[in-house]
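U., I forgot to send this yesterday:
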Amino acid sequence: MSQADPGSVLVAGGAGYIGSHVSKALAIAGYHPVVLDNLSTGNAAHVVDFPLIHADIADTGRVVSLIREHKIRALLHFAASIQVEESVRFPLDYYENNVCRTLRLLRTCSKNGVRTVVFSSTAAVYGSPEKLPVSEDAALNPINPYGRSKMMVEMMLKDMAAALPDFHFAALRYFNVAGADRGGRIGQSYPKATHLITLALRTALGLRPELVIFGTDYATADGTAVRDYIDIEDIAFLHVRALDALFERPRNLVLNCGYGHGFSVNEVVQTVKRVTGIDFPVHETGRRPGDPPVLVADSSRAKNELNWTPMHDKLEEIIRAAWEWERKLHSMKAIQ
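Result:
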């Protein structure tokens, strides 16, 4: 860090899977995270060493008081609905939560002097890209309301940066985030999780009767969809480095967060079976609406802009960390 005390930052959605890991990484880096979360999907138990304010990001009065009380310097925004299939069924809910509430949060922060933002975006803004791996210069063509809602927020951020000379942002476009804190303290704990690796591990634990694979007729090597999986600890570090970069040399950044290579659903399933030693049942069914066949990142810009070198670029290591977390989580629930 270039500063002895980088100050306090507001982490919206900081009790969620990604937000809690980023909050931990921020604290390690010397920042003072202040978590704002309505706990609709977040877990208060994952916020241990810093303040947790149970409120909605659209609660303007509460946000203003937090900014003033804690002298907030920046916003890191994770509060959003994130399920692709759900967004197709309930599009207005996604636009309300991901766009309208974010608009209110950005307006409140900007009016009260917080004009540095790190935004949790997604590779879903690309839709089904023609060229792979996909770079940040690819056309934005989301094919589901979730992706469109995230694209709309990116557009707001760009327009704010154009209108306000002292407003700067980093939009980090995640590919598939997986894994867990290597210390075993936090991980994916949402009971309605939709992430493939989490679902596969919970099936291995016997918490689900079978793992459902959606689509086996894609134009891929084995017919199942291919994704770029990035470890949660690498994602957390990328957020810290992005925030550092905005403070060190104010500018606007749009960065892919991935490893540049993908694994098919079948490859992930086989790796989970190998790591756990459990041959759990798998049921194949048709494609889900809104799912592209292949999404793999060109992450060279993040590596260059943030001087980033991935720490955990091995699928088996990511799954093993997630497996340790899931077993711990299951054991804790069994004791209660």
